[in-house]
Amino acid sequence: FFAAAARRGDGRAATLLARTYDPLFFPASGVSGTRPDPVQAGRWYAEAERLGDAGAAQRLRALQADPAQRN
C-alpha cells in the first residue's frame, strides 16, 4: 500500500514506507520477521523529502548520522 501511494506522489506514504526499512525505527516499532535495510530507508526518505514530506529530511539526516549505518 505505501509503495503504491508513494509512487503516485504521496510524500507521507514514502516516509511510512521508509520507516519499514529504517534500523533506527525498528527497536521502537516492535517489528519482527523482517530485517532493516538502511539503503532502502534512505532511498525512500529522500523520495519523501522530494515529494514534500516535512519530517523526511530529519529522518534521513538521523539515518545518515548513525555510525552503525556506515560501511
DSSP strand tally: 0
Helix content: 55-70%
Order of helices and strands: HHHHH
Rg, alpha carbons: 11 Å
Global outline: globular
Mean pLDDT value: 90
Q: Which class best fits the helix and strand makeup?
A: mainly alpha
What does the main sheet amount to? none
Query: In percent, how much strand structure appears in the residues?
Result: under 5%
Number of helices: 5
Q: Which runs of at least 5 residues are low in confidence (pLDDT < 50)? A: none
**How far apart, in Å, are the first and last alpha carbons?**
31 Å
Q: Your description of this structure?
A:
The chain is an all-alpha fold and 71 residues long. The chain is 59% helix and 0% strand. It has five helices and no strands. Helix 2 (11-19) runs antiparallel to helix 4 and helix 4 runs antiparallel to helix 5. The mean pLDDT is 90.
Structure characteristics:
71 residues, mainly alpha, 0% strand, globular
TL;DR of this structure?
With 71 residues, the chain is mostly helical.
Topology (SSEs and partners):
Layout: H1 2-7, H2 11-19, H3 26-29, H4 38-50, H5 56-65
Helix pairs in contact: 2-4, 4-5
